[in-house]
Amino acid sequence: MGEVIFHILILGFLGIFLKQSFLVDTARSSDPIGPVAFPQAIIIVALALTLFSLFQTIRKRRIAGRAVSSGIPHEWSKEFLGLLVAIAGFVLIVDFLGFIITAMILLFAILYLLGERRYKKIVGLSVGASFGFALIFGKLLSVPLPRGVEALKLLSYYIY
Q: How many Å apart are CA 154 and CA 27, to the nearest integer?
């Protein structure tokens, strides 16, 4: 039931965002489709995907019925709790270690928790994705990412 409520909340927020996007002033726009066309298109796609996901969730719930479970809610599985701890750890140490190293640790933990056991693949994805995100967001989009302390801060200036 929680998934259905979550989908409904997302639909509500997306509806509010779509309604507010029509209030943006476009009088001085030289663009033929206006400055709000792209955000509105994204919101409409998000609405369609959320509705599709909601219908799949309802259908899956009807098919599953009331299956017998072990008594432990699936929300308390080791994967779920591990992901929560990994994300909390990321938030707590990102200012000290910097974005790249902390993202590597987070991605390594997430991939391992979700069942990937080939360490070369885990390390490759962790390193590649963290450097990729740092270059895209740090260099290309000029988003200020946490740099870390002391030597890590100096090294981060060479990368992003």
A: 46
State both tokens at 100. 């790249």
How far apart are alpha carbons 132 and 104 in whole angstroms? 11
Q: Determine the Cα–Cα distance for residues 109 and 112; give it in Å rounded to an integer.
A: 5
Residue count of the chain, please give it.
160
Longest dimension (CA), the chain: 61
Q: Please give the C-alpha separations between residue 108 and each of 90, 105, 116, in angstroms, as whole numbers.
A: 12, 5, 9
pLDDT tens across 8-48, in order? 888 888 988 888 888 887 766 676 677 788 888 999 999 99
Picking from 85, 111, 9, 78, the residue whose alpha carbon sits closest to that of residue 50 is 9
Take residue 44 and report the two structure tokens written for it.
């409409």
Count how many Cα atoms sit within 13 Å of the Cα of residue 40 in the half-sphere of its side chain.
Answer: 11
Q: Specify the residue for token string 């640790």.
A: 105
Task: Please give the backbone phi and psi of residue 146, each rounded to the nearest 5 degrees, phi first.
Answer: -60, 135
Would you give the distance in Å from CA 113 to the centre of its chain?
17
Least confident residue range of 59-73, 92-106, 128-142: 59-73
